[in-house]
């Protein structure tokens, strides 16, 4: 059974979902020390003017080192409303936003306390819409250098070049609504693929392996 170790991620990029599809067993790390400016609480979508990062605000931990599993979502800045408006503005004219929007809207109306629970619930939704069921578990402790799993906890990262970090991931272009203006934008949030390609999203993920 091949195993991959991933961080939790908010509407993770296409590369992340290729891992969910490729591996028999997925371990999502919950005992790492939480760090900002990662996919743990941010995603990148294709806005009309180019890539746009959306970040979920988190409550500042009481200690310098806090497990990711204990990170709480903040209500600061009316972020749910802002994120939903950004998604609607970016994808309202895609072929499948109208079809899927009622599945996603409740996540921006209901308040989740913990970031991992929010990310996990969104991930389950996305996998169900794409029509595959990965075997996902949370880690039971922290292993710095796992011998029996491929470790992508810090390799799938918004500040790292995915082509250098993950040569096994083959970035396959697909239709994007602003492609004529922006060119193809690779490895965006999974919602970019889903809203543009709908049921064909699974075929794109399979082609990226």
TrEMBL record:
Family annotation (Pfam families): WbqC (PF08889)
InterPro entries (alphabetical): WbqC
Descriptive protein name: WbqC family protein
Source organism per UniProt: Candidatus Bacteroides pullicola
């Amino acid at each position: 059974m091949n195993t991959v170790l991933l961080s939790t991620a908010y509407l993770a990029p296409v590369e992340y979902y290729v891992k969910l599809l490729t591996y028999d067993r997925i371990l999502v790390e919950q005992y790492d020390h939480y760090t900002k400016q990662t996919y743990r609480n941010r995603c990148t979508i294709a806005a009309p003017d180019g890539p746009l990062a959306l970040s979920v605000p988190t409550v500042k931990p009481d200690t310098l080192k806090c497990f990711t599993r204990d990170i709480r979502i903040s209500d600061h800045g009316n972020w749910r409303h802002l994120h939903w408006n950004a998604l609607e503005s970016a994808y309202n004219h895609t072929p499948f936003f109208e079809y899927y929007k009622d599945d996603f809207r409740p996540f921006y109306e209901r308040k989740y306390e913990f970031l991992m629970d929010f990310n996990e619930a969104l991930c389950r939704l996305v996998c169900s819409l794409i029509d595959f069921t990965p075997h996902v578990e949370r880690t039971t402790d922290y292993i710095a250098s796992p011998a029996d799993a491929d470790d992508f906890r810090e390799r799938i990262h918004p500040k790292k070049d995915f082509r250098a970090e993950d040569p096994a991931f083959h970035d396959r272009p697909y239709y994007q609504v602003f492609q004529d203006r922006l060119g193809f934008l690779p490895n965006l949030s999974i919602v970019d693929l889903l809203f543009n390609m709908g049921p064909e999203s699974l075929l794109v993920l399979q082609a990226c392996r």
